[in-house]
Amino acid sequence: STEEDDFHLQLSPEQINEVLRAGETTHKILDLESRVPNSVLRFESNQLAANSPVEDRRGVASCLQTNGLMFGIFDGHGGHACAQAVSERLFYYVAVSLMSHQTLEHMEGAMESMKPLLPILHWLKHPGDSIYKDVTSVHLDHLRVYWQELLDLHMEMGLSIEEALMYSFQRLDSDISLEIQAPLEDEVTRNLSLQVAFSGATACMAHVDGIHLHVANAGDCRAILGVQEDNGMWSCLPLTRDHNAWNQAELSRLKREHPESEDRTIIMEDRLLGVLIPCRAFGDVQLKWSKELQRSILERGFNTEALNIYQFTPPHYYTPPYLTAEPEVTYHRLRPQDKFLVLASDGLWDMLSNEDVVRLVVGHLAEADWHKTDLAQRPANLGLMQSLLLQRKASGLHEADQNAATRLIRHAIGNNEYGEMEAERLAAMLTLPEDLARMYRDDITVTVVYFNSESIGAYYKGG
Amino acid sequence: STSAAEARSMALPTQAQVVICGGGITGTSVAYHLSKMGWKDIVLLEQGRLAAGSTRFCAGILSTARHLTIEQKMADYSNKLYYQLEQETGIQTGYTRTGSIFLAQTQDRLISLKRINAGLNVIGIPSEIISPKKVAELHHLLNVHDLVGAMHVPEDAVVSSADVALALASAASQNGVQIYDRTSVLHVMVKKGQVTGVETDKGQIECQYFVNCAGQWAYELGLSNEEPVSIPLHACEHFYLLTRPLETPLQSSTPTIVDADGRIYIRNWQGGILSGGFEKNPKPIFTEGKNQLEIQNLQEDWDHFEPLLSSLLRRMPELETLEIMKLVNCPETFTPDMRCIMGESPAVQGYFVLAGMNSAGLSFGGGAGKYLAEWMVHGYPSENVWELDLKRFGALQSSRTFLRHRVMEVMPLMYDLKVPRWDFQTGRQLRTSPLYDRLDAQGARWMEKHGFERPKYFVPPDKDLLALEQSKTFYKPDWFDIVESEVKCCKEAVCVIDMSSFTKFEITSTGDQALEVLQYLFSNDLDVPVGHIVHTGMLNEGGGYENDCSIARLNKRSFFMISPTDQQVHCWAWLKKHMPKDSNLLLEDVTWKYTALNLIGPRAVDVLSELSYAPMTPDHFPSLFCKEMSVGYANGIRVMSMTHTGEPGFMLYIPIEYALHVYNEVMSVGQKYGIRNAGYYALRSLRIEKFFAFWGQDINNLTTPLECGRESRVKLEKGMDFIGRDALLQQKQNGVYKRLTMFILDDHDSDLDLWPWWGEPIYRNGQYVGKTTSSAYSYSLERHVCLGFVHNFSEDTGEEQVVTADFINRGEYEIDIAGYRFQAKAKLYPVASLFTQKRRKDDMELSDLHGK
């Protein structure tokens, strides 16, 4: 009878598609307002949970007071609170950092006279994404303190993008850390702040303004560019470096920042202090605060069990902080041969190499083109056409056509060790019980951004 | 083909009587018919080229086999019009009479075809049910092994729809219509609820009438008004295949094939074939409105087309080697109920619409254009078109999300089997009573009317019903026993039915004006003592029912009006149109304010008196009486002694915040009287067995009170004139030409035979005399009861003659259900034995037997 049950559990291709596509979102970037055509054509995004509830977050928003589109991937650990908070707040910090002095003054004036603020961001989100609460008043207060400090710098044009990204990451992380140290009246806010600070999130975000692409990364999310050379060949250009134990530069940094005596204990079993895989992240105050500070905060009478707080001081904890949210910022000047950008959480990169990902997206583009192919390439008669279509249907080839992110996720979990798609494996991976899923796969979040080569080309032609 | 109606490039006129927007088949047809009827000052505007859009890419099949009689008539008229169009205009239209064959792969499909066949025959369209063998003779390429039968309609045709539109435009233009292409309508100008002109990209035109024939853009155009006109329609991509000619080219007279079970149609096209269909998983398009995508640039999607292609090759295996020419993607427009949209906007006078053709623009274009032209010129079409009237919808159907979801259900429905009592599954739970969750938890199954969820029946906890797909049947349905027990409970104890969907208006005035105006608008005498309820209705000049309602006089100057659910928009528009402009009359739609519970049954009186500590016996609370009283803790409940079924009981109109309380009290007190929930199917059985006609089903704006036995609801001598009075006086003198009659099926076995639905032909002494309008199984009579109209067509001329009671009574009747005829007894009055309840004093509801 177990065989019968197994049979019933088997998902049909339609059901598989339904599961895979639930988190899909696609946006065409329409630039009806601006005179310059946007360098971003559209983006496609998707998310598949392994944790329950999902700990990855994503965000796409355009800055309304400056130019530029922002894309972010946030991979939470030890709960989703930190990833949620970062996904809600980081873009505001960046947007404010980029504002001109005049705009900031305008914002400050509006706050003082209790008038409505200028709109800062326009979010482009999937209906299923957990609701981005409008910046709560505490968060807004901290954002305001930040812009007041920026105002004090008296810089006409605002920060450079590079500086803005650098400051925003660190500033937000320090705000997260300080918020729970300050006495908070409201219990809900207090508990939430504690959960945010005691969970963690890596973050990778891109800022695109015309041909200027900046990527800021802290942790092991990754961003790569798909590049098509003039000879038609495709290649991959990584824009980030994973911050983990396999990165020599990170190892050196950690050793540099801590006494020599800790050289052997700082990374154990490929993990920071033997506990954390990424070595840069938001939150995780267990790896940032002194033991004393942690104790004094937690002694304020939080019900840590109910709040699901991961309260554990790792061994060899001598010279905190061990963890930082300082990002590595990369600048890339977009060229017409840069066709797409893939941002994804490590759930994808654990399964697929950079080259696999580029190959799959290219395949996706080619297939979308297939629909446009001219009459010449098409089978001439009805019978041949039918058998071709039936083949395509059987192989599920056209199924994921709509969204490249879905296709990447499908292959990430459905590919066998030879890199071939296995329908049974895909079905099995999707029918794993909630409590087992995380052992076989991680949350996967992917955003694919397509560039408009024509408008990028126009920049070079002096347009 | 060349166009005789060369569109002009000159400056636009600044004034016209009528501006038509849209140069497709509907727009040109409206222009053609208006100009034929003598209106000459007409401007037709087309944003692109004439006969572009869906008209250009349409598959060109003219098919008269439709489900609704009005649709059959429109298609039949179109067929006759196009047939002679080439002769009339000299423009070649490619009209070829090919005939069409509708295949049945299942017995249920064959029943559906037989029903259509019966309907076609009685309106004079030749058609017959044929065997698979005969199908193979008519079309040698067809695989007929899996067929159980088919319907052949020999006079159906194929025609080039673009050329038909050009020919219609040409004829219109010769009649004086001015046609301008490459001119876009930006919006329609409205002043005081009346069209005053249009703003185009080439300037303004003042006009009195505007006709929106913008096809898939009609919705957006409607919304572009300052006061939006809601025209609920939405486009879906539609694919069809064109091939090169066969080795032996198909003859141009090859019949068109419709294989609905295979979801495809196939016609000959230049020696090859043209084949498309209505897939299960449609692709809605243009939800966000018009974008850069031009229709001609839409992409082919072969993967999407595969199921239809496979179906085609299964039906015609020899086509495998046929060379592909093209896969055409031509969006078609669909409406929330699969019926087209015509008529005048309820909000803006002079704003007419003809759109949403559900991929039958060519078949309906001619007839629909004629009806709309009649509507504009004469005030109403020569046929009843309520089923197509824009006013059947309200603003509530205009959400983009709703339309997108609903058309995804409607498009496959084109070829799905249409069985009785089908309910849409999408766009549900929009309007609900506050008791919805309570009733749902008790097993309610729901149907939807005008967006409102209404209980059909309640499935007892221990009973399972068939799955949705399996429950589709033309025979006895699986809920038969459930409804029987509900009906029995209504007769013997007491039931409660949530009837909150009814349209409820309040009409008040500061002076005596309310009464004066209402006396002019309504046919019955409303000058009754406060607290009385009057069954009445609003008639048009011809004496036909525009509205059917019950009115309670709340006090000297205020009236409470209850109308059918789907009348909300129409009735409001009619009142607004006919109320004096300067009046101090206050009209308020209070539909949403009240939850209505219908307490039906002999013990209703006990339940209510226990809950109110007030005597509810007929001496204190006579029939057709309305009182505000307290029920349980709740005050201000309007209790009315009527049940819309002829059974004893009360309607409770409860301010919504008290609804749950009153319901709970009624249920808990009612327990000892055997109370239970009931639904609309029980109500339907009860009202039809007592010959209560419902507006929109049995009676419409071409039915006068005299034609449905409601003389007593009209007070011709109430001391003042009212709309329709003259027509009724004349009819009273001359006699009626049709009469609503009740039929009791005699030799019908409800377990084994096909069930009647509506639209079945009625035969008197072997002659066709009319069609049924509704039917139900009467659990008391243990027979099926049908309501329907009997006409008296002259045997020689076919002309309609006077129908007398004698004529009705002296006939042998048969009802034709899908080709099987059942004997029926005709009754002009309901069966007296059904009213065994002790007669109440002053029992108006029961003595007014032909009541609602």
Describe the 3D structure:
The complex is a heterodimer of chains A (463) and B (852). In chain A, the strands form 3 sheets. In chain A, strands 3, 4, 5, 6, 7, 12 and 13 form a 7-stranded antiparallel beta sheet that branches. Chain A is globular and about 75 Å long. Chain A is 39% helix and 19% strand. In chain A, helix 3 packs across helix 7 (187-198), helix 4 crosses helix 5 (137-152) and helix 11 crosses helix 13 (404-414). With 463 residues, chain A is an alpha+beta fold. In chain B, the strands form 9 sheets. Chain B has an 8-stranded mixed beta sheet with strand order 5-6-4-15-16-17-14-19. In chain B, strands 8-2-1-12-22-21 form a 6-stranded mixed beta sheet. The N and C termini of chain B lie far apart (56 Å). In chain B, a hairpin with a 6-residue loop joins strand 21 (341-344) and strand 22. Chain B is an alpha+beta fold and 852 residues long. The longest helix of chain B is centred in the first third of the chain and has 21 residues, at 69-89.
Question: End-to-end span of chain A in angstroms?
Answer: 69 Å
Q: How large is the share of residues in beta strands of chain A?
A: 15-25%
Model regions low in confidence, pLDDT < 50 over at least 5 residues of chain A: 1-8, 372-376
Q: What global shape of chain A is seen?
A: globular
Amount of helix of chain A: 25-40%
The oligomeric state of the chains shown is heterodimer
**Largest sheet, strands/sense/barrel of chain A:** 7 strands, antiparallel
Radius of gyration of chain B: 28 Å
Beta-strand share of residues of chain B: 25-35%
- The strand order across the widest sheet of chain B is 5-6-4-15-16-17-14-19
Q: End-to-end span of chain B in angstroms?
A: 56 Å
| Biggest beta-sheet profile of chain B | 8 strands, mixed
- List how many beta strands of chain B DSSP finds: 41
Quantity of strands of chain A, as a count: 15
Overall average pLDDT of chain B = 92
